[in-house]
Design goal:
Blueprint lengths: L2 H18 L4 E4 L4 E4 L5 E5 L14 E5 L2 E3 L3 E5 L2 E6 L3 E9 L4 E9 L6 E9 L4 E3 L4 E3 L4 E6 L5 E2 L16 E4 L2 E9 L5 E5 L4 E6 L11 E7 L4 H12 L5 E2 L2 E2 L10 E4 L6 H11 L3 E4 L19 H14 L3 E6 L4 E2 L15 E6 L11 E2 L14 E4 L2 E4 L2 E2 L6 E3 L18 E5 L1 E2 L3 E2 L3 H18 L3 E4 L11 H15 L5 E4 L12 E2 L14 H13 L5 E6 L6 H14 L2 E5 L2 H6 L3 H17 L4 H8 L4 E8 L2 E15 L10 E8 L3 E2 L2 E6 L5 E8 L3 E9 L4 E4 L4 E5 L5 E6 L6 E2 L2 E11 L6 E16 L2
Parallel strand pairs: 22-23, 22-39, 23-24, 24-35, 35-36, 36-37, 38-39
Antiparallel strand pairs: 1-2, 2-3, 4-5, 4-10, 6-7, 7-8, 8-9, 9-19, 10-16, 11-12, 12-13, 13-19, 14-16, 15-16, 17-18, 20-21, 25-34, 26-32, 27-31, 28-29, 28-32, 30-31, 33-34, 40-41, 41-52, 42-51, 43-50, 44-47, 44-52, 45-46, 45-51, 47-48, 48-49
Helix pairs in contact: 5-6, 8-10, 8-11
Amino acid sequence: MRPLLFKWFLFSVTLFISYSAPAQKLFESDGLSIRIGPGGKILSFHGDREYLPEHAESYLVRIKIKGEEILPEEVNWSGEVGEFRFPKGIMISVHGIPKQDYLRFEVVEVKNPDPIDVLLWGPFATTIDKTIGEYVGVVKNDDYALGYQSLNVQTTGGKILNPDGSDEARGTTATKEAHGSRLQGYCINRDKLRIHDIWNDQIPQAVIPANPEGKLTGSAIALFGVAPQKVLDILEKIELQEGLPHSTINGVWVKRSPEANKPYLITTFTEESIDQCLDYCERLGYNTLYHEHPFKNWGHFELIEAQFPNGWDGMKACVEKAEARGIRLGVHTLTNFITTNDPYVTPVPHKDLMIFSQTTISKDIDEHAQEIYIDDPAGYAIKNACQAIRIGDEIIQFGQVSKDPPYALLKCKRGAYGTSISAHNAGDKVARLADHGYKTFFPNFELQKEMIERLAEFFNYTGVGQLDFDGHEGGWGTGEGDYGMDYFSDRLAGLVDHELRNGSSRSNHYYWHVNSYLNWGEPWYGGFTKSQGHYRYQNQALLKRNYTPNMLGWFLLNSTTNLQEFEYMLARSAGYDAGYALYTKLIHLAQNKELEDILQAINTWEEARLKNIFNEDQLKALRNVNNDFSLNKLDEETYALQYYEKEKFELLNEMVQPGQPNDVLVEFDCKDPQDLYLVIGAVGERGSIDQVTILYDGFETISVEVALLPNYAITYRGDNKILIYDEKGRLKSIEELDIGSIELSEGAHNLRISADFSEDADLKLEGYVRIKDKVESIVLK
């Protein structure tokens, strides 16, 4: 073949191949490269090595229409913009921008968006399986980490499990899979009227107005790969470069600030008691005082007059007093819950209260009608907290809906919540009001925005600097799922003109950027060792793998809380490097006889935690919930960590020979003199233990005549009192004994413990003697 003809042949073949084989697209940053194939499928996910698993489906974008996931038919790239073409004439243009530290992808145009329900980012399949940061969106092995980040509030991290985007899980942005892990996110097409079930399908056929702020265009994500120790550095760069929320405390990013998880005091302070409360806060060594319930209504956030007779000005004066002493003030509310005494409800309900199960009246009704006939009863048989419907400007409560046509709402209470009773005509719209078990209503998205502005006005006027987004899931009540939650916290933080330390009862991908801490664990179910105890400690691993400051939740200090209980919690606080919230009342602080010892222990343990004085073996021991400790500060450089042993015992409800005692022998040695510390519990499901007898060293007898019901317990701490606790660890009563204190001398001791079981009891008696063990001296270097 002649040279010229051969060259022409090669050019023709090359040209043919280039036109017949759609081009692949490569995006590269310093730590990650992604190759996208002609159908939008990811062909390579490469960091320090290949992390795309074989046979795993991985895509940049997909869409969802009426529950069906649809893949792109083809992708055409023009520079860094890819046109992803789908059936029904749908085209989504995605702009990929390689940054130095991450890859950025944004939807810049959508043609024919109306049929689309959801735009899906990913899944991005990986082979990494060691550490899965489910809500932060980072997966790690020993040498490498891959991360996903949603770059605006309309883009939700995670799997879409419900049509509205509500998700009860702690996080699904990163999930463990058989091949390793997946990263994913989505954007719901909110720019159209939607009617479907919301709040994890608990509220049927909610009416969700079109929301142009939630459109598909503008949805954006970032992907990155980096060494594990540099993950926080990259996340901070993404926040700053992409204009994401970047929360700080005293100017330091909350993810690095030692202030982020400092303990705080929760109590009811008032204009009158603020100085006394600040005094206690200082004695505890805390720098935040948090009000448990200052608002008389939620929605307009007016303060309770008895606490703050000068209203917002009174709260502002309290803030100024606190700031002068270096203390932050916080307030508690339930995010977007609306109380029924709020002006959004009474006397004229706001037009944007959230509604569901909308229908029409089938017959005219006058002001006296107790039955309201409706066209469609769907959703009205469900019972909720308020049983409230809205017709015009009247709220009506109803008892039930008839089972057979003509359908009617029965046992109606007219003019509920101070609204005006009026006549209504056939054809008028009627709908149920979305509510919560706390007997509160919810706003739709537009009214939620107004609530946010009102709350921000309160914070800016008063200077209050802390808020827990308790009931954060109330954002689901708007019909906007996790986006409703994210929007509330993001918008509020953006409107407040000073630093806002904040926590939540929910973990969430986008909220991670706003959040200061997550402080799960409520104190209402028992003492320090029982109230959601395992739940609190299990959460610490979750928080750590998601780069969230560790917190243990709320703990209740009442008039009978003792030093040993408190040190049990403080040991866990040190072991996990975790803060907590201390809930109490002024009267309980005044009545607690061990308060001074407790205050000293709090300051000692917190100082030790912040100085990081414990070694790895000690930290491991401190995290073990079966261990007890006390900590003493000997001088400015020396601490003494006291360990305790627990000599455990068990007594079964067994038949014995006549005259033979049914008891258990407990033998133990004391290295040092100490008070007897004994805990006994009734374990089982039925019956009671009516008397417990304790014989100490064969000569001292303690008899306790009290009915121990299943899972009740008693504690004796060496004085003349027996403390009786119920099945949730709450102190029920205190029994006075006719003995003095029992102090154990150095050496061997024994107890014989017997019990009288009721005839129907399936109980056994379990307990332990708490004994001082070794002491480790810790000297600061």
